[in-house]
Queue: 4 jobs
Job 1
Amino acid sequence: MTSASSAPRKHRGRTVAIVLVVLVVVLAVVVVVAEFVLRGVVDRMIAQQVEQSLPDGTTGTVEAHADGVVIPQLLRGTLDDVAISSRRLTVDGVPLAADVTVHDVPVDGKGSVRNVDGTVRLASDAVSDLSKYSPLFERLRLIAGGVELRGKTAVLGYQIQYAADGRVAVRSDGRGLTITPKTVRIVNSSLGLDLDRIPGVSGVAVPVCTARFLPEQLRVRALRITPSAATVRITADALPLSESGLRTVGRC
């Protein structure tokens, strides 16, 4: 009698165990699928919000990726880290690429993100377009550790054309750069002039205001230049997520 009754109990025990295992597997699959679906939705929503809030004169497509498991972050109401990137941004006609990491992103899109840190990269062919922002030179190209400026001016009654290697530095307030021409060469040599300094050009810092292209809170912190590209590091302690906050640019 005991052996006969224990057999059904063992059978029921195995059945319950199998059901529990199946339920756990199903729940795990549901969680994985939900995580996958929610991640795609969250990433797309962030990218769309950034694209719609780009400052005037800035266009392009944006990609976003929230790090970590998003479900607990969504329940908490804040995403820990979000990477935002674009290979197809155009700022006032100048093409560039950007990679930015932001922290503590509110899920409801209200408030500010924290500790913004990123880089903006301009290829050498894009940098030539920056000459339009200064009346002091007509062409600009990247060289190792700096830029070469080309322009024209009057010296001793002669109209000369010059090329100058310039040193580029980040302004202390983070709102722009300065380009200071150093070594100068006269390129219309038929004039017979041999000058190593040009008054009003040599040693005169040319300001370049980057703040007017960036959301107001962003600052330029560092710059690295090679002949192929210029890479600018930008940071902010906090950046508002509102459309007006992102569209409001700085000034110099």
Job 2
Amino acid sequence: MRQGHGDDIYQYPETEINFSSNIYAHADLSALKEHLGRHLDLIGNYPEPEALSLERLIASKHGIPADSVLVTSGATEAIYLIAQAAVNKQMHHYSTGPYPTFSEYDDASTMFGLTRHEGGQQADTLLWLCNPNNPTGHIFSNEELAEASRRHALLVVDQSYEDYTLAPLMTHREAAQSANILQLHSLTKTYAVPGLRIGYVVAAPALISLLRQYIRPWSVNALAIEAGKWLVEHDDARAVPDVESYLAEAQRLNRQLNAIPGIEALPTHTNFMLARIHRGTAAELKDYLAHNHRMLIRDASNFRGLTLQHFRVSTQRKDENNLLLESIQNYLS
């Protein structure tokens, strides 16, 4: 992780409203905490070397073979496994969707020696697509994904934010039946448990078998596995109980940001959005909000292709969003 990430709330301990993380901040985790509290004895033994019990549960839920699922320590571990496996399949190049996009695709690819493909013949490349895309909230259509899979040796479709949009996305079954698609999922984001690190890959059994060669023993800890099984069995524990209303509020926040002179917010199909301040820098705005209003936003200037003026915010409750709007207006007045 050479480029860094948002949600650096550990540097701002006074934060009261966190717009920096794309994960909804008000998920009710009380039932999960109670369940884990009854299973703390798990820490006294090694977990499964591979989280096979959770893989079987996920596969059963989505009607796909168990050998089409690989559970990882967050979707990020899956990204690095895929880059490593691609190199060992004698692949030499990678590309990503349009910038800006999630920085770990570049970091993982270059760590294992893949070089970025800048155009021309693409049949031998690994393509990373984030859908919905972080940080823009853009959605790639299923037709675009199908075309991308025809043009590349391997296509990674990172659907970590799939439960924060109403747009139609590739299904688990479609990914499992494809010969060259690796689909990433994040229980971390679906259920708002980023501290537990639980993700998984869905792909054809041959691709999952390839990745399994490189996964580290016990990479997913016992409490994470137990939490994952409980969450998959309790689908009502998702972070956002009413996604439709939440996304309507995201669109309102987007419109109101654009109504502030000196702020431009890009269209989004999810709960987070990329914006640009026309005066000063995003870092200056971030410091002002943190120190004067105890709010944290994401300085997005370290995303490839963006400027010092770009920042990202994630929709919270209406009253909190209104405070953000008011505070930005005060800063620019």
Job 3
Amino acid sequence: MFFDSKPNIGVSSCLLGEAVRFNGGHSRARFVTDVLDKVFNWVPFCPEMEAGMGTPREAVRLVGDEESPRVIGSNTGRDWTVEVRSAAEHFLRLPAARTLHGFILKKKSPSCGMERVPLYKEDGNKKGTSMGVFAAALKKAYPLMPMEEEGRLNDPRLRENFAVRVYAFKAWRDLLSSGVSPARLVEFHARQKMLLIAHHPGQARKLGKLVALAGKEPLSPLVEQYGKGFMACLALSPRMKYHVQVLQRFLGFLKNHLSPSDRSELHDCVEQYRGHLVPLSVPLTLLKHHLRKNPHPWANQQTYLAPFPRQLPLRNYMEV
């Protein structure tokens, strides 16, 4: 699969090694700077610096209501809520923000934390958890855009899912920017079909039925509904049994082109994956080898075969 340009990914500045933390340090995330840096264009941002807090500074925390918390200085009690929200609004007005295909946020940050950010009562006692003020504004502005915390990217499944969603969202945005017609929507869905099945066959069928209405129903609401369903389906973690279903479908495309020994080898490789003996990359590598030797016009165009650049060391983990 050919990737003609890198996705634009927003990132909390501290994760790139910028010294913008409250203590004057940073929170450099090695997977971000050493691996993802090869395939993503970064758009760094620190809402607390943009809010004028400076560094080093007193730590801040979320206080009050879970749905609309305030950003309060831990020592002085100064309320930074207006400034942080203004910083978020400033970022969302930037031209670069409108080109984003994903965002990686600092975990547990009162401004950037995506989930489980500690929330406190007015008396200083812990109340529960909430979402960082900037992260909440980002999610409200771009509800379909993939967002992830750097800590969760330590999980190989979440790493893979984030990469899949980023490149899928970029493909979807590219389609929207170039103009959607019923025929182009059908073509887009056809390329994504096996990938969608790997995430959830039921949701994939629903999207297929929706696409079948292209040319029969008003296009604009149909496209909007498809985009929401497309990204929602990919947000679901793929399951081994769905991957096996997809691999077996590809076997069906090849069965009349392979020798008995090659068919047996490929089938055994899929079964080894099902039996937790090899990672997904093993049957996929063999499958792509046979598809190169025996091209199938529909199968070879499937995004599932290469949903992200090969520089990303994903799909190599063992299922448990």
Job 4
Amino acid sequence: MKNKKVVFVIIALIILAVIIIPKLDFSSKSESTDGQTSGRRGIRLSVNAIVIKPQKLQNIIFTNGTTLSSEEVELRSETSGKIIKILFEEGKKVKAGDLLVKINDAELQATLKKNYSREALARDKELRFKQLLEKNLTSQQEYDVAQSELVSVSADIEFTKAQIQKTEIVAPFDGVVGLRSVSVGSYISPQTVIATLQNINPIKVDFSIPQKYFGVLTEGKVINVKVGSSGRNYKGRVYAVEPKIDQSTRTVKARALVSNERSELNPGAYVEIEVVLEDLSSAFLIPTEALIPDLEGEKVYLFRNKKAALQPVRTGIRSEKEIQIISGVNLGDTVITSGIIQLRQNMPVTINSILN
């Protein structure tokens, strides 16, 4: 009985297979695959591009700096004494040679008068001995003694005048006087700081840059100075570069002058600086996303004969959005700027838009 059932099931399966297999279409799958492959081969990737043309480019580096007075001194007396006059106003401008502070010089003035009297007597004596010598009524030795006395008294006068000059503190240059720390009647010594004098027009700016720019940063380079508190920008020029590289920071120190006619910049301020190292009038620039880093070197894709052509390049100055191409591309070349990841060598492409 069981054998009959097994035979019946086998016969049923054979009949079912004979009916279904002829109806299966194996060619449709193959045709579909071939059609899909051929369709892929006909697709062109749509990309954006840029045409190489000369552009202006500035090689700028950013750093921080500090403003300094172009000239600065602490006003001190060369001699000790009591102040009898203060002839400046705090925070006001003074001219070179202006008398700022006067120290009591009464004793020196009295000594000077005494020496003037001695000089008059010595001069008369020298004149008389000279006349006597001409008539051979005195010796050359006596005349030399009289002349020596005159020279000695004249030297005493010059010394006293020099001492009196030390009691007068004058401005060594044009500038602004700071806050004073003394008053009329104060007894001061050479160690006493009376006030400070600063010349702030022009004003100096000190800053440092990485050592790799040592040979590029030279006298005359333009800098842009920005004060964070006001947001204003000022132009200046480098006038000196430290010849030694700082070993601890591997930086080079430089100093620039900035015009400060309106006294808007103050010494000691923190400033942001842009240093214009190079000013190029015909540089080749491409967007940074168009550059392909590679172990063999940097490359770009050029649009040639409606295909993507991989081209090695050498780069130069980099900015936030663009990069300079020094070699590898020529004027008029079309560089592909989008779809870089999908691109392959000699892949057919279509230019969607050309960037300006």
